[in-house]
C-alpha cells in the first residue's frame, strides 16, 4: 500500500482509498498482533501500533459501511491477548491484605506499631478511605501528558486501554507544571449506580445483554475494543495511589491525595485522617451505615499508614503492602423463596419478568421483588417458581437473583413458561429474531404502556408534576380522566364542568385538587430537553434528550429534522448521526418515533392545550460569544483533546458539527487540517486558529 495514502488525513480519503487503507490496516495489525502475542517479538513500538489501530477506528467511524469482516475492531470480547496489547507495569500493581472484622483491624494496627517499634501511645496517623468496587487502572504520564493507560491484569502485566481511558472525563489528558516528568497515577474506573441502572435499561431496551453490577459494567465498558463504545458509557475514575514516579509526590498519603486533587483527579471520599484505632473503626462503621446513599459501590474501607517514610520502612509482604489493609463489608446476600414470577409491561411494551420473593432482609433493607431482566436470564439461571434463591443487592440497592439453590428445589417445580401474550391487554407479545426482549404489540390499546408512558411523562426528570404520582396516574387512567398526556393539561377545564367531581373522590380534597391544578399550571412552559425526554422515546434518556435539544434548538426544528431523517441517505440523517453519542440505533428509534402518526398526534395535542416548549438554553451561559453558533473543529488541537473542545463549546451554547456547510459559523483549524479547512474557505466561512478560538471564548 502506498505510504503516501497512509499519511493522508482520514477526513480527506475517498471511499475507495478508505477501503484500500482498511484492507491494508487489517493485514498489518493482524501481523503485528501475531508478532507481539504469539512470537513475543514485536516489530514496531507500542505507539506506532496504537497509531495503526486509531487510524483503523477513525476510518471506520467515517465509513461504517466499509468495516471489514476481518477488521481489527471486530475482535470484541475475546480473551485479553486477542484484543488488547499487554503492558508490563513499571512498578507491579499489588493487592491488599484483608480484614473482615474489627479485631482483624486492631491486629493490623498493632502489627504496624510492632514493626515500627512504636509504643501504643505514640501517634500513628492512618488514612481511611472507601474501597471502590471497580476496575483498577494505571495511568502513565510522561512530561505531563497521558501516554498510557493499563488495567491491573495479573499485577505484573495489564491490558493497554489507553484509547478508552482518554474518553473518560475524570482522567486528565495533561497534568499541571508542578507534576514530575514521570508519574503513574493509579486508581479505580467505576460507574455510578444510577448510571449503571440507566445503562442497563438502555441495554435491555436495545435488546443487548445487561450487566450484573456496576463493577461488571465498568469493566465491560473499559474492555471495549472500540473506544467509541467506551466513550458512550458513563465511567468515572478515582485516583488513590501511584506507580512509577521520577520524584516523590509528597511526605504523606494525605498530602499526596490533596496534590492528586489539585491535578484534577477525583478523590474517593469520604476519607479521614485517623489517629488511633477507634477513629479508624468509627470511620468504617460510618461509611458502612451510609453506604447505600453513596452514588457508587464500595466493598470496604482501605486503611493506609499516612507517612511515606513509615510506608517505606514497612514495605511489602509477598504481594501486598504491610502499610495498608482492606476492611471488607460483609457480603449482602441472603436466601429466600421465590413465590411467583410476574410480568411487568414497560412503556415501550417490553415484557420484564419480576421475581416476587418471600420478603427478606438483605444488608438492612427488606427485599420482596427482584428483576429477572428477560426470558434468557430466567433460562440461563434456570429459575423456577418455588425455588430457593440467593438474593443480592447489587450496588447495594438493586436486588438481583444470583443463583438457585438446587438442593432445595421442590419436587415438580416447572420451568417458567414465558407468555406470548401481553398480560395487560392480551395482544401478541413478540420477540424479533436476534433480540432478547419480548414486546407487546398492543401499542396504544395496551393500558400498561399507556400508564407507564404517562408515569414517565410526569416523572421528576420530565414534566415533574407534583401530586401526580404513580397512584394518581393509575387511578386517573382507570376512570378515564387522563388517557393521553394532553389530558393532563385539560383536566382542570374538564373538572370545572363536572363541578368539582374530583374533589369528592376519596383521597382528594379541595386543597389537594387546587395544588394539583397549580402544579400542572406551572408546567405549561417546559424546556425542550425535558419535553423530549418526557416523550419516552426508546433509548432517549436525559442525556440524549439534552444533546438533541442543544443541537436542534427548538421543537419544530427537531420535529422537522426527524421527519427528514427518514431518508437514510439524506443530510438530515447524517446530521443526526453526526451528533456525538447518537449512533444509528438511537437515530433509528428517533426516526421511528417521529414517523408514527399517533406520536405526532400526541405532540400536536399537547401544543393545542397551549403548552409552550421553550427553545434550548445552555446552562445559564447564553451570554457567551459563541452561543447559538455552529462550530466545526478540524485537524489536531494542541491545548485540548477533541472531546474536551467539543464539550467546552457546547457548554458555552455552541453547536458542534462534524462537517462544514453554509450554516457553519466558525471552523477551528488545528494542525494537519484537511479538506474541511479548504471547504470553509470555499464557502466563505470564518476560520480560526486554536489560539483565536480560545481568545474568542475567553479561555
Ligand atoms: S490502594 C498497594 N486504595 O482494591 C496497594 N486500592 O484489593 C494499592 N482498590 O487492586 C491499592 N479502592 O484495585 C487502594 N482506596 C483504595 C482502593 C483500592 C479499591 C482496589 C485496587 C486494588 C484492590 C486490592
Average of per-residue pLDDT values: 87
Give the cofactors and ligands: 2-(butylsulfanyl)adenosine
Given helix and strand content, the structural type is alpha+beta
| Count of individual beta strands | 26
Cross-sheet strand order for the largest sheet? 2-13-10-3-9
Structural features, described:
By secondary structure, this protein is of the alpha+beta class. The chain folds into four domains: 10-75 and 331-430, Nucleic acid-binding proteins (OB fold (Dihydrolipoamide Acetyltransferase, E2P), Beta Barrel), CATH 2.40.50.140; 86-328, D-amino Acid Aminotransferase, Chain A, domain 1, CATH 3.30.470; 527-614, DNA polymerase, domain 1 (Orthogonal Bundle), CATH 1.10.150.20; 630-697, BRCT domain (Rossmann fold). It is built from 27 helices and 26 strands. The strands form eight sheets. A five-stranded mixed β-sheet has the order 2-13-10-3-9. α2 packs antiparallel against α3 (46-62), α14 packs across α15 and α19 crosses α20 (542-552). The longest helix has 24 residues, at 15-38. 36% of the residues are buried. The model is unreliable at 76-81 (pLDDT under 50). Bound molecules: 2-(butylsulfanyl)adenosine. 2-(butylsulfanyl)adenosine is lined by residues 94-96, 129, 131-132, 136, 152, 188, 240-241, 268, 302, 321, 324, 326.
Amino acid at each position: 500500500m502506498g505510504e503516501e495514502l497512509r499519511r493522508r488525513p482520514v477526513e480527506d480519503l475517498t471511499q475507495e482509498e478508505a477501503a484500500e487503507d482498511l484492507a491494508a490496516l487489517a493485514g498489518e495489525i493482524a501481523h503485528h498482533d501475531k508478532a507481539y502475542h504469539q512470537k513475543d517479538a514485536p516489530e514496531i513500538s507500542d505507539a506506532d501500533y496504537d497509531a495503526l489501530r486509531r487510524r483503523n477506528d477513525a476510518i471506520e467511524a467515517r465509513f461504517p459501511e466499509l468495516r471489514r469482516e476481518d477488521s481489527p475492531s471486530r475482535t470484541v470480547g475475546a480473551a485479553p491477548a486477542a484484543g488488547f496489547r499487554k503492558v508490563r507495569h513499571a512498578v507491579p500493581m499489588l493487592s491488599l491484605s484483608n480484614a473482615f472484622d474489627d479485631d482483624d483491624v486492631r491486629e493490623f494496627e498493632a502489627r504496624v506499631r510492632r514493626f515500627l517499634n512504636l509504643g501504643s501511645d505514640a501517634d500513628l496517623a492512618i488514612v481511611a478511605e472507601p474501597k471502590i468496587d471497580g476496575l483498577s487502572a494505571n495511568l502513565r504520564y510522561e512530561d505531563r501528558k497521558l501516554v498510557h493507560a493499563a488495567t491491573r491484569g495479573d499485577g505484573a502485566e495489564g491490558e493497554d486501554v489507553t484509547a478508552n481511558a482518554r474518553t473518560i472525563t475524570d482522567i486528565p489528558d495533561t497534568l499541571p507544571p508542578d507534576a514530575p516528568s514521570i508519574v503513574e497515577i493509579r486508581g479505580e474506573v467505576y460507574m455510578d449506580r444510577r448510571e449503571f441502572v440507566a445503562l442497563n435499561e438502555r441495554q435491555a431496551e436495545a435488546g443487548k445483554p445487561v450487566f450484573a453490577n456496576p463493577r461488571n459494567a465498568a469493566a465491560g465498558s473499559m474492555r471495549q475494543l472500540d473506544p467509541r463504545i467506551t466513550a458512550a458509557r458513563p465511567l468515572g475514575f478515582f485516583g488513590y495511589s501511584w506507580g512509577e514516579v521520577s520524584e516523590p509526590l509528597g511526605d504523606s498519603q494525605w498530602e499526596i491525595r490533596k496534590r492528586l486533587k489539585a491535578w484534577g483527579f477525583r478523590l474517593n471520599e469520604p476519607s479521614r485522617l485517623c489517629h488511633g484505632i477507634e477513629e479508624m473503626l468509627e470511620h468504617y462503621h460510618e461509611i458502612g451505615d451510609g453506604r447505600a446513599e453513596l452514588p457508587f459501590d464500595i466493598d470496604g474501607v482501605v486503611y493506609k499508614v499516612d507517612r511515606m517514610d513509615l510506608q517505606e520502612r514497612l514495605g511489602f509482604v509477598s504481594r501486598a503492602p504491610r502499610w495498608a489493609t482492606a476492611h471488607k463489608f460483609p457480603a449482602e446476600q441472603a436466601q429466600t423463596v421465590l413465590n411467583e414470577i410476574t410480568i411487568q409491561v414497560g412503556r415501550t411494551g417490553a415484557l420484564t419478568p419480576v421475581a416476587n420473593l418471600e420478603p427478606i432482609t438483605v444488608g438492612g433493607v427488606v427485599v420482596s421483588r427482584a428483576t429477572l431482566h428477560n426470558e434468557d436470564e430466567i433460562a440461563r439461571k434456570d429459575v423456577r417458581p418455588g425455588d430457593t434463591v440467593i438474593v443480592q443487592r447489587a450496588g447495594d440497592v438493586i436486588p438481583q437473583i444470583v443463583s438457585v439453590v438446587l438442593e432445595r428445589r421442590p419436587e415438580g417445580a416447572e420451568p417458567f413458561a414465558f407468555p406470548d401474550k401481553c398480560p395487560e391487554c392480551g395482544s401478541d407479545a413478540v420477540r424479533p429474531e436476534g433480540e432478547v426482549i419480548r414486546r407487546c404489540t398492543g401499542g396504544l390499546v395496551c393500558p400498561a404502556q399507556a400508564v407507564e408512558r404517562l408515569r414517565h411523562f410526569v416523572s421528576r426528570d420530565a414534566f415533574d408534576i407534583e401530586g401526580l404520582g404513580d397512584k394518581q396516574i393509575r387511578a386517573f387512567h382507570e376512570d378515564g380522566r387522563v388517557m393521553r398526556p394532553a389530558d393532563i393539561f385539560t383536566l382542570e377545564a374538564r373538572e370545572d364542568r363536572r363541578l368539582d367531581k374530583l374533589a369528592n373522590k376519596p383521597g382528594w380534597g379541595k386543597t389537594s385538587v387546587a395544588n394539583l391544578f397549580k402544579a400542572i399550571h406551572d408546567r405549561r412552559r417546559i424546556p425542550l430537553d425535558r419535553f423530549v425526554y418526557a416523550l419516552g422515546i426508546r433509548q432517549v434518556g436525559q442525556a440524549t434528550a439534552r444533546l438533541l435539544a442543544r443541537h436542534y434548538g427548538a421543537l419544530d426544528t427537531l420535529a422537522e429534522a426527524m421527519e427528514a431523517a427518514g431518508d437514510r441517505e439524506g443530510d438530515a440523517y447524517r446530521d443526526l448521526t453526526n451528533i456525538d453519542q447518537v449512533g444509528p440505533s438511537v437515530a433509528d428509534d428517533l426516526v421511528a418515533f417521529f414517523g408514527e402518526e399517533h406520536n405526532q398526534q400526541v405532540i400536536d395535542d399537547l401544543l393545542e392545550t397551549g403548552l409552550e416548549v421553550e427553545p434550548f438554553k445552555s446552562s445559564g451561559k447564553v451570554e457567551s460569544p459563541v452561543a447559538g453558533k455552529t462550530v466545526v473543529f478540524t485537524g489536531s488541537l494542541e491545548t485540548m483533546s477533541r472531546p474536551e473542545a467539543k464539550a467546552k463549546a457546547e457548554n458555552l451554547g455552541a453547536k458542534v458539527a462534524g462537517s462544514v456547510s453554509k450554516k457553519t459559523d466558525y471552523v477551528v483549524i488545528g494542525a494537519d487540517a484537511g479538506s474541511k479547512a479548504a471547504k470553509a474557505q470555499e464557502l466563505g466561512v470564518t476560520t480560526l486558529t486554536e489560539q483565536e478560538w480560545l481568545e474568542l471564548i475567553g479561555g
